[in-house]
Write a structure and sequence with these properties.
2 domains, Phosphorylase Kinase, domain 1, 5 helices, five-stranded antiparallel beta sheet, Transferase(Phosphotransferase), domain 1, three-stranded antiparallel beta sheet
Length: about 200
Amino acid sequence: MPNYELSDFTDLKKIGEGTYGVVYRCHCQKSGHLKALKRIKLEKSEQGFPSTVIREIGLLKELSHPNIVILEDVILEEGRLYLVFEHLTVDLRRYLDRFNAFAGLPPTLVKSFMFQMLQALQYCHVRRIMHRDLKPQNVLVDVHRRFVKLGDFGLAKAFGYPLPKMTHEVLSTCLALSQPPHSLTHSLTHSLVLHR
């Protein structure tokens, strides 16, 4: 992980704001590349950092996949916390809005984006991590390479075994849905036959 300081970043431009932070696009003098800098909001009365931020940092440090946004560094300066991410051009929501103004996304691009997201989710699920906030605003797009990455792991949680108690039908459906799409039809049919 690089060792950045806040002074390494120039030309900050606000590109987004959420419950726990403000995101800026900026130029990194050390690398010469654009970065996304997320400044964490802290209330005056708050003790420490929000649990969602701690969870996001912990999970992103564990994850390394081409379709998951890279957390490059964490900066703590003057009582403020900053997360340094790789910069991607736009989120999927804005990208879709741009295309819907014309003819919509080409089917091949939809399939490619969907495949990339499924790969990212499978990678997370195999490591027992649930994102829990999958929406177009949390999918980042590299417009030039037509590449997508899953971001914003603030609501994500690691889950362990044993799973919470569920009925057989719910458990079978959950297990079936965690399998690859090509075996999904067989799994659902098999589980329905078993539970008649």
